């Protein structure tokens, strides 16, 4: 009977999907963002740079100081 192993395959496939979902959920809860796949050093450095620029803009907005970087709209 060729249909007999189908329920086993469905259970195994479901278990793989549940495990992947739990890993994703744990990472999302721990870090608050999705895990970056295939992120090289350049993308990582640009992400850190963008965060620093955003913090600098927020600081300039709070203090009322004027800066070329802070006045740019992005």
Short description:
The protein contains three helices and no strands. The chain has helices at 6-31, 41-63, 68-71.
Seen as an oligomer or otherwise, the chain set is: single chain
Q: Helix count, per DSSP?
A: 3
How far from one another are the termini?
A: 62 Å
Low-confidence stretches: none
Order of helices and strands: HHH
Largest sheet features: none
Strand tally is 0
Helix content: over 70%
Kindly name the structural category: mainly alpha
β-sheet strand percentage: under 5%
Report the average pLDDT across residues: 86
Topology:
Blueprint: H1 6-31, H2 41-63, H3 68-71
Structural description of this entry:
- The protein is mainly alpha-helical and 74 residues long.
- It is 72% helix and 0% strand.
- It contains three helices and no strands.
- It has helices spanning 6-31, 41-63, 68-71.
- The longest helix has 26 residues, at 6-31.
- It is rod-shaped, with a radius of gyration of 23 Å.
- The chain starts with 5 loop residues before the first helix and ends with a helix.
Q: What attributes characterize this protein structure?
A:
mainly alpha, 72% helix, 74 residues
């Amino acid at each position: 009977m060729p249909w007999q192993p189908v329920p086993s395959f469905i259970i195994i496939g479901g278990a793989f999907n549940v495990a992947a979902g739990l890993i994703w959920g744990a990472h999302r809860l721990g870090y608050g963002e999705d895990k970056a796949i295939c992120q090289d050093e350049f993308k990582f450095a640009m992400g850190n740079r963008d965060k620093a620029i955003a913090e600098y803009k927020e600081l300039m907005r709070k203090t009322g100081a004027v800066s070329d970087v802070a006045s740019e709209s992005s």
